[in-house]
Amino acid sequence: MASTSILHFRSLFLFVLVASLRYGAAAGDVDGGEGFCSAEPSSECSGGPPLYWKATHPTLAPAHLQDLPGFTRSVVKKDHALITPESHVFGPLPDWINTLGAYLISPSIGAHFTMYLANMQDGSKSALPPKDVERLVFVLQGSISLSVGTGTTHSLSVDSYAYLPANIKHSMISDESTTLVIFERSATEDFHPDLIVGSTDKQPLLETPGEVFQLRKLLPTSLPYDFNIHIMDFQPGEYLNVKEVHYNQHGLLLLEGQGIYRLGDSWYPVQAGDTIWMAPFVPQWYAALGKTRTRYLLYKDVNRNPLI
Predict the structure, then answer these.
(1) What region holds the Cupin type-2 domain (predicted)?
(2) Which of 99, 104, 199, 115 is nearest to 158 (CA)?
């Protein structure tokens, strides 16, 4: 009788173990198999999600907090803000066709620029920014056709971008369901920057003396451009060596990875999909955690006297 009970227990144990392993494999398939591919992220990883997938399909950890009424990781203070995806509020963008937008950073928070997401459906069309306002568009998901002036057309896919000087006539039509992150600010008078169309992978890695992260700049560093967009990559465990304090404002979108951001005297766990606003002179520092690299997109005003 005892041996029969032991055999029955062993059979039950093996059944539960096999079922658990099968469930784990299936769960891994659902989230793109994260943790089973190499530590170096790649959209080529078999069965993996597209590039920057988490920036447009973010998750929270621990997972059960997603369903907690009123929960948010968003924080707004006088010199910085963390805006997380569960608190995004989308509404129709003025004069855009079939497009919903969520403003993440604006002058009402203390910034001198706006940063917003635009969710376009197949065939959606953009509107022009206000007079004397310059614009940078970065594609997070999908693709668009950008028409400039009287007929020049550019095709922009994920990781591509366009800088559009103030008052240049242009329109964007989505070729599929598309998400853009857009920066706009009032242009400085007496400067005449050029239209720029490019992609992150075509920009060279730049020197970062005293630091370990990799840096690319999407715009020229010449005087006509009063802001730039930096793409910064950190491998797991890498961090900023300097706790920065400077007059420049920042708007940041985490494209990949996770880590800890220090802003002032506060420390925030952050992940792909999170947005950060940093006012002038707020102390700031970042460390990358997890098993894959961190990549973030960073707005920074440049080339102007702070009195302007």
Answers:
(1) 231-297
(2) 199
